Amino acid sequence: MDALSLLADGFAGAFTLQNLLWVLIGCLLGTAVGVMPGLGSSMAVALLLPVTFALEPTAAFIMFAGVYFGGLFGDSTMGILMNTPGQASAIASTFEGHRMAKNGRAAQALAVAAIGAFIGGFISSILVVFLAPVLADFSTKFGPAEYLALAIFAFAATSSVVTDSAVKGLLSLALGLGVAVVGIDGVTGIPRFTMDSNYLFDGISLVTVTVAILALGEVFYSASVARHQEEGKIIRPKGRAWLTGAEFKEAAPAWGRGTLIGLPFGIIPAGGADIPTFLAYGTERKLDRRRKNPQFGDKGAIRGLAAPEAAGNATTGMAMGALLALGLPISATAAIMLAAFRQYGLQPGPLLFERSPELVWALLASFFIAMVVLLAINLPFAMLWAKLLLIPAPYLYAGITVFCGLGIYATSSSTFDLLMLLGIGLLGFLMRMNDYPLAPLIIGMVLGPLAETSLRDALTSSSGDFSVLFSGPIVITLYAVLVLMLLLTLRSKVTKKTGNDI
């Protein structure tokens, strides 16, 4: 009951006119920035960091919370409407969400995303309030071997889930891992695959790769291939910006499963919301195959969108709890917020709850307020966002290309990164042309450094004994689930092939 009373005090601090205004501003800015390719929630928080020096800490972090959650919805909005997600965590939402938009159900898709984000974020906020000590204990049980097992699990899961060709999935994954190792080795200090170019010493930016592969590559593909295939067809959003009872009933189980999948990943530094969104999508896709009337495919499945959205926001809410309770940044945005705390002379962790309880509990209360605000401002405007699809294709392609370039240049102020954006965009176009999945490449790049560092740390601590990589209950459980998943995937592929032959 202490948590309830402290949370009540937090609501008293958050429910001031000034703080409510900062929540609203944060949600609007996060959504607006997230809508633009390349400018996700982490970019928004980074750009706002110098501006907040004039604010007192509580107001600043309340606004950051709104930006954090709003950015996720903005990322998904562009992924659904134009197949150009702002960050890797929104990739899974594009698979079925964009199909729904192309089928004239853009408004309903945005409503599914908004409600899923609300459910995942709200439930995770409740758990952060009441279960932070338990979650902190669980997170401390993860060592290098556990992180490596988790990364391998994610590699195998994404390579087998998003494509019917395991070979193409593994090749895409290998390409992503190769991109991840470019730059100076943090342990030896030796440049790797830099071709003696100073521009590559810091590695290749994930933002550049994500925008190039998913946004610019999609523009090239749409302008050169899909445009001619769909000549004369104009995608027009129609219908309503709310869900019918049948649609809500269809989405509800996926929202629940997505939330359950996303919650644990909020306390594990394994790439933020990227893994759980893909796992949630993969779970729904596997369940859909067992239905008499599968929904996944050309028209778009509500469950394929509902689950990743709930999972992503559930992870985000829990990640904020991990940041406050442990000082553990789970994602890029959390890392920027950690830097912001330190600039205010504050150190997240158990002592923060003792030394600055007003700030902590007002911030936790603002999570709930942000969820309600996002639902209130996004559901009524779902049809407005959907009208972006009415933009003529040439203007749309040009606009997305400009935003891609602006987003990358704002991140690095480097002409070299713009050239790299173009080159990787052409690579994404070639991958689309040859049906290579894009998600394994992104996941390989996101989790490659974690896997490499974990492998090194585990072998260093065990003096080169490889048995440490397969010891411990968490490691054994992860590998056992991985083997079971691969066997089931292999069985389903063999069954499908046998059925086709017959």
From TrEMBL:
The chain crosses the membrane at residues 20-39, 46-69, 109-135, 147-163, 169-187, 199-221, 322-341, 361-381, 388-409, 415-431, 438-455, 467-488. This is Tripartite tricarboxylate transporter permease TctA. Keywords: Membrane, Transmembrane, Transmembrane helix. Residues 20-443 form the DUF112 domain. The keyword Membrane applies. The keyword Transmembrane applies.
